[in-house]
């Protein structure tokens, strides 16, 4: 038995080495990259404290290409805003295969409620079972940064290739790591990164959800103000940092999508 365990450990791949396959975003054309940079130089400061509606209208008028609206399914505010301001945008959902069942149910309901906008479900190169076999069981526990890289960061990078920019659900109120986040910036590939909810609090978000009668993720009513993978998300106490339940078993605070 000891020899078997030793062989199993030897056969496990170093988690710093991702599986073979596409992992990067295709480069933008020089023209779109230059226009994106110009837009950020001109508008980032002007949009820093703008309303969600103003930011989305700006994106509709100025973005020099297709836009992806990223949805975590924690809430569906961005889907509703996109319906009103970016009707040609596509929805992008990172299906890590570790989500709560409730999160996947919300994704299905989004497809039903917003049939005019395509929902792209991005997945990692390896299935959950394949990852266990190649990197050892519960990589999310032994090396959560590597797990997030393979199941979130790299799939997002590949999936953003067709787009000139992407809309995120970042809020400054979500914690100290996001307290100064801009409403408009460039990501590492030169794409526009647009965050219309940036000035919103949890209360603002809940009010918008109620007013628009949006799809509600049931766990947000059960102590989960920030929802990620089921394996790495715990409920938080009232008044606690909304993201305190994310990777509570480690010092990790971000998945890497916004770094």
From TrEMBL:
Domain of life: Bacteria
Name of encoding gene: cysH
Main location: cytoplasm
Classification via HAMAP family: CysH (MF_00063)
InterPro entries according to UniProt: PAPS/APS_Rdtase, PAPS_reduct_dom, Rossmann-like_a/b/a_fold
Domain named Phosphoadenosine phosphosulphate reductase: residues: 69-235
Record-listed E.C. numbers: 1.8.4.10
Record-given protein name: Adenosine 5'-phosphosulfate reductase
